[in-house]
Specification:
The structure holds 4 protein chains of 4 kinds. Chain A is α/β, with parallel strands linked by helices. Chain A contains 9 helices and 5 strands; from the N terminus they run αββαβαββαααααα. The longest helix of chain A has 15 residues. The radius of gyration of chain A is 20 Å and the shape is globular. By secondary structure, chain D is of the alpha/beta class. In chain D, α6 runs parallel beside α7. Classes of the chains: A alpha/beta, B alpha/beta, C alpha+beta, D alpha/beta.
């Protein structure tokens, strides 16, 4: 923790940043995003297993408030660095415009309000089996190496369970899950990779995706979002955490990631130079479904 | 509605340069084929957003055909390669949420393949006829009407 | 009114079963297991045993019972050269809510004000009329609850037709409206005479909530009225993603959108959908001009509407202190600490002026 | 019938004002409503194209002209685009009238100055005709109107009519660069014309409407010239859905534009936060 604070202070002293995005303790004893805009704020910064939030969401150029702060330093875990890499890859930000403070991470809890130590019962599912304990995209790397968190990986099991259902059962399941959606679009707003100036869901001429929270609108929205994030989703879990209806949106995004991995051998990385699978192609891509 | 009386409505999104011309050829060659398909012409398969497919189902289609130039024949060099990846992912996602991906037929039909187009149309129509009407969305409730 | 009865656990189940058998929709907090934790959610009861009256606060409010996330305003169809309009024939389903939290019951009565302001919204009041609310005293709270700060409490019966207070082996039922009396009277066999005197609720829970936040709403309102351009807004908006989850999950947020959706070539529907003040599109003009152009303005609007505009127009705070916005926020925006901060600044301003 | 259900109106006449603005004359299909319908100058309505949605406009015709209402609109978004595709004889929806109105009673016996820019003439036109139809009840009537270019001037036939009338003084202008060789009016911006030709503020009311820039420059100008802020009126437009004070998007501070407006005085505007 002290290492992080000292580094943050040094960055301010050397005038390399105007603000640092990190984490701080909140009233409820959990953590929340912090915006340190002066050297005195650096002593508020913390980093531990409660630092769930993906701060890359704040870096999109559409967040004019944050952009107004000036040159940013950002505290990133490996998963957050993947989002930063995505933003760089897709020309949303320039690598040289930000200072990345990479954190060695031993996994985070599923909810930042959990104040107990990390244990197999409260660890975020995405952290179990996550192979990146530290980012490869960073300017400074902070902390001691940490072991991978223990816990039972239930996500793939859930995916295979759904895949093995009959189509009717799957449709019934998604009708129930997506039927809860009230179309607040919080999943989009918090997503670091949803940076479009005007989202297709907001378009009215024509209204491609109906804004009403009925079956038509909800399926169109969630299928399209999953497709638009295929090969881009960094698995930070922000959409699931933000969803007021508690829809396990990650399932759709995981499925899309698995499809992309199986078909095109691609997994999301924090290497900005590696092209994304949609937007690229190979002449010999599988086309078994095309007559 | 009994299965025998069900006539599926099928929307075909086709590229201007190959399949549309191929369908035209099928017509001028007087090849008989199922009359259930309505063609919407687009510049390229690369222009066919998956939302077009979703919209077709929302608006009452029972099946969809997506067709364009064979690989290496794209008028815009690579539109169909990009489309191929997009559709590959999309149809697996459809399957994942329980919508039968076979309701959507993907094919490459060149300008000279009038016969193949007729085959695609007939196969798709027969398949969708067997599936029955697309019933995922509740039908519009009672409207004011005569 | 104010009649008191007793309802024991067994009779509660039977009462619910009676209602379901009679075709009434019964909404209650339902037990759910999520990631090993026991949670509750308001839902239509299939089986009385699912009901969880003493559990944690349901994650979503009761709002959708009287104000569905989407509803048809009317259907239209082109007939020759004119249009024919028909309202939804469904009508309003008779509904009984059993186990509404006090914060959720009060919210309906608060929103009644705007829905009845000069023009009476029949869709809202139609559902309100068809719904009988049996609220229950809270038995749990957490660090996000602050109902006591906005004039309510874990035992406040506002907005309820009947109020249930847990006692030994069942509930003491207090009847507050004729609608409530009618319902209980028509099932009088399930209720027994209340033993006197009424048991007073322990104040423990209320004190716990009070410890989270206490404030003087008038002072907050005064401060807001005078501090439209306070630097606080910009500072708060930095963290806000503008996702609007807080508004969608709020029992009192009632803003909506009206959209037309075609259902075919010559027919369609006009619908009313929930909407929120946080996305930019909410106030964007057709020309592209946006009166609330940034998140500072939009976040401020949310706080202003709840704690200044609504009190000024309708004499009520548009907030019941349920704390859901605090729990749902992905960015850790905490209304309790924001109000605390404003309260502190209001005190400071008061002592210096 | 719920609050959100519109009356049916039929397009009786269509006038293209400029390349992108059009006036529709609408008559109620139901004769009973046509008979009953009444409104006051400055009120607005929700106009709908079935299948596209609703749009908020002031009623542009005068309440003294019975049997129809008029709407002038500029094509900008989904609904206005759909309105543009309609033809004479087609059916639209109308809800209203909503909101407050200009204080015609108070304005009687006084001088009145109308100032408008571009399509902002539409709501002002409603009051102008209301005044002119009761001409003997008002003192001097001055109209100051400007647009970006000659092609952008709306209600051209009526401008000519007002120019010819001896009981109305009309001053018009177009922005520099927008004039044509045979343009006889001034070449300047609206606020400059106001400065030049506005009559004495004594015993006078001003009614101003136009794009935000015209309103923002003209109101302080009029005050500087001696008009009382309580006697300078303007009409605001915020995005609305319901028009009934329910949907919550037109608030400016604690004011609901749909209920407390759309007509505000300069004095009232000064009390509001700048969210319009």
């Amino acid at each position: 923790m002290q290492e992080l604070r000292d580094l943050a202070k040094k960055l301010f002293q050397e005038k390399r940043v105007d603000a640092i995005l990190g984490y701080e303790i909140d009233r409820r004893g959990g953590v929340r995003p912090a915006f340190a805009t002066q050297i005195e704020d650096c002593d508020r910064l913390v980093f531990d297993h409660r630092c769930v939030h993906n701060l890359a969401s704040y870096v999109s150029p559409r967040r004019t408030h944050v952009a107004d702060l000036g040159r940013l330093g950002i505290v990133v875990k490996a998963c957050d660095a993947r989002a930063i890499a995505g933003l760089i890859r897709e020309n949303q930000i320039k690598r040289e415009d930000i200072v990345l403070i990479g954190m060695r991470c031993g996994g985070v809890v599923r909810d930042p309000a959990i104040s107990e130590p990390l244990d197999p019962a409260n660890v975020a599912q995405r952290c179990i089996g996550c192979e990146q304990r530290e980012p490869t995209l960073y300017d400074h790397l902070v902390g001691a190496p940490k072991p991978a968190p223990a816990g039972e990986r239930r996500r793939n099991a859930r995916l295979s369970e759904i895949e093995s259902m009959s189509p009717e059962e799957r449709l019934a399941l998604w009708k129930e899950l997506l039927g809860r959606c009230t179309r607040c679009h919080a999943c989009r707003q918090v997503c670091p990779m949803c940076f479009c100036e005007r989202c297709v869901a907001d378009k009215t001429r024509p209204a491609w995706i109906e804004t009403s929270p009925h079956m038509r609108g909800n399926f169109a929205w969630h299928l399209t979002r999953a497709l638009h994030l295929a090969g881009r989703c960094v698995d930070c879990g922000e959409c699931e955490r933000a969803c007021p209806a508690q829809i396990p949106l990650g399932l759709l995004n995981r499925k899309a990631a698995n499809i992309v991995a199986a078909r095109y051998g691609y997994t999301v990385t924090d290497d900005p130079a590696k092209p994304a699978p949609i937007g690229a192609y190979r002449l010999d891509d599988e086309q078994e479904f095309i007559a | 509605m009994s299965d025998t009386s069900f006539e599926p409505s099928i929307v075909a999104f086709v590229c201007n340069w190959c399949t549309y011309t191929g369908a035209d050829l099928a017509g001028t060659s007087r090849i008989t084929m199922a009359p259930n398909v309505r063609i919407i012409r687009l510049p390229c398969t690369g222009r066919i957003d998956t939302l077009f497919i979703i919209k077709a189902f929302e608006r009452g289609a029972d099946g969809v055909i997506v067709s364009g130039c064979h690989p290496a024949d794209c008028h815009y060099t690579a539109g169909n390669y990009h489309a191929r990846r997009r559709f590959a992912i999309f149809r697996e996602l459809m399957d994942f949420v329980g919508i039968d991906p076979l309701r959507v037929t993907f094919s490459w039909v060149s300008a000279s393949e009038g016969g193949k187009w007729a085959d695609v149309v007939n196969t798709a129509t027969e398949r969708v006829r067997k599936f029955g009407p697309f019933q995922m969305y509740p039908k519009p409730a009672e409207y004011v009407g005569e | 009114m104010n009649k008191r009865r007793m309802l024991n656990e067994k009779n509660l189940d039977a009462f619910v079963q009676d209602l379901i058998n009679a075709g009434t929709r019964v909404i209650s907090p339902i037990r759910r297991k999520e990631q090993g934790r026991e949670t509750a959610t308001y839902a239509a009861v299939q089986n009385p045993e699912e009901i969880l009256l003493a559990g944690p606060q349901p994650a979503l409010p009761l709002k959708d019972v009287v104000f569905p996330p989407t509803e048809t305003l009317f259907n239209w169809k082109q007939v020759k050269s004119s249009i024919r309009i028909k309202e939804n024939p469904e009508g309003f389903k008779k509904t009984v809510v059993i186990g509404a939290r006090p914060c959720d019951a009060a919210a309906m009565e608060i929103v009644d004000r705007v829905m009845g302001w000069d023009y009476r919204d029949e869709l809202w009041f139609g559902r309100r009329q068809a719904t009988t609310v049996l609220a229950v005293a809270c038995s749990q709270c957490d660090d996000a609850c602050f109902c006591t700060a906005v004039g309510l409490s874990p035992t406040n019966a506002r907005g309820a037709d009947c109020f249930l207070t847990p006692g030994e082996g069942g509930f003491e039922v207090e009847t507050l409206t004729s609608k409530g009396e009618e319902l209980l009277e028509s099932h009088h066999g399930r209720f027994t005479q209340a033993k006197d005197p009424a048991k007073t609720q322990p104040a423990e829970l209320e004190n716990k909530v009070r410890a989270n936040l206490s404030l003087q709403p008038e002072k907050i309102q005064q401060w807001l009225e005078r501090h439209f351009d306070d630097p606080l807004w910009k500072q708060l908006a930095l963290r806000c993603h503008g996702c609007g989850a807080c508004a969608f999950i709020c029992p009192t947020c009632h803003c909506f959108d009206i959209v037309d959706e075609p259902e075919g070539i010559d027919c369609g529907r006009r619908r009313r959908n929930w909407d929120a003040c946080q996305p930019a599109l909410f106030t964007m003009h057709g020309s592209g001009h946006n009166p609330r152009k940034d998140q500072t303005a939009r976040f401020r609007q949310r706080i202003m509407h709840k704690f200044n505009i609504y009190p000024a127009r309708f004499g009520e705070i548009l907030c019941t202190g349920c704390g859901r916005c605090v729990r749902v926020c992905a960015a850790g925006m905490d209304l309790v600490s924001i109000l605390g901060e404003i309260s502190y600044m209001a005190e400071e301003a008061g002592s210096t002026s | 019938m719920n609050l959100y259900q519109p009356h049916l109106v039929r397009i009786e006449e269509m006038i293209d004002e400029t390349s992108d603005t059009r006036t529709l004359r609408l008559a109620f299909e139901n004769p009973e409503i046509a008979q009953k319908f009444d409104f006051k100058a400055g009120q607005f309505g929700e106009y709908s194209v079935f299948g596209a949605g609703e749009c908020t406009f002031c009623i542009a015709s005068s309440p003294t002209r019975k049997g129809y209402i008029e709407a002038s609109f500029k094509v900008v978004g989904k609904v206005t685009r759909a309105m543009r595709r309609l033809n004479v004889g087609d059916t639209m929806g109308f809800r209203g009238p909503y909101g407050n109105h200009f204080p015609l009673e108070e304005m009687k016996g006084k001088n009145i100055v109308f100032i408008a820019g571009g399509i902002g003439l539409a709501p002002v036109r409603c009051v102008i005709w209301n005044t002119l139809d009761l001409r003997d009840q008002f003192k001097d009537v001055t109209i100051i109107y400007g647009a970006r270019s000659v092609a952008d001037l709306v209600y051209k036939r009526e401008l000519e009519e007002w120019a010819e009338r001896s009981d109305v003084r009309l001053h018009s202008c177009v922005d520099p660069g927008g004039e044509t060789p045979d343009w006889k009016g001034e070449v300047c911006f609206v606020p400059m014309l106001v400065e030049k030709v506005v009559p004495a503020p004594q015993d006078a009311f001003a009614v101003v409407c136009g794009p935000p820039i015209v309103i923002m420059l003209t109101l302080p100008l009029l005050e500087k010239m001696g008009f009382a802020p309580e006697r300078i009126y303007t009409t605001l437009e915020n995005r609305m859905k319901c028009g009934l004070g329910k949907c919550g998007r037109c608030n400016i501070g604690s004011v609901y534009v749909c209920k407390d407006g759309p007509v505000f005085t300069s004095a009232q505007l000064k009390m509001l936060p700048p969210e319009y």
